[in-house]
From TrEMBL:
Tagged with keyword Transferase: yes
Protein name (database record): GNAT family N-acetyltransferase
Spans through the membrane: none
Domain N-acetyltransferase: 9-151
MF-aspect GO terms: acyltransferase activity, transferring groups other than amino-acyl groups
Keyword Secreted tagged: no
Pfam families: Acetyltransf_10
Native organism taxonomy: Bacteria, Pseudomonadati, Bacteroidota, Flavobacteriia, Flavobacteriales
Keywords recorded for this protein, A-Z: Transferase
Amino acid sequence: MNSIHWHTKLFDELTVNELYDILRLRTDIFVVEQNCAYPELDNKDKKCLHVFATLQNQVIACARIVPPGLSYPQISIGRVAVDVTHRKDGMGRTLMQHALLKIIEEFGPQDIQIGAQCYLKDFYGSFGFEPASADYLEDGIPHLDMIRKASVYDI
């Protein structure tokens, strides 16, 4: 039976195939599926920690942990993406749990800020993220900033 494997790597530790699969998944979702032309390659990946899942050596879910000061004053989780074939099986929830645990392991409990698509407000809210801005458009898609306080330890 094939099983899902979880990985956390710095940019320079990614294999060429892992990097290609991560960028392909993100482009398939954020550019093609969401019909949004925007700069997917934003010069932040090289400074991020990448959390991803593979099944049969293919990336099926990924997110990046963005260091403080690069996107927000706080550490951040971004580019959260799950292959369409794994969205209804809890993969997004498991991906977020892995990212949150990795932040606690590597950096200790701290505030985390994200820029969430508005339709995912309740999803991120289930992890303790609370709205921290009014809704705004980013690349034509409604977003809002959300913060998870360091005092929230439930994952």
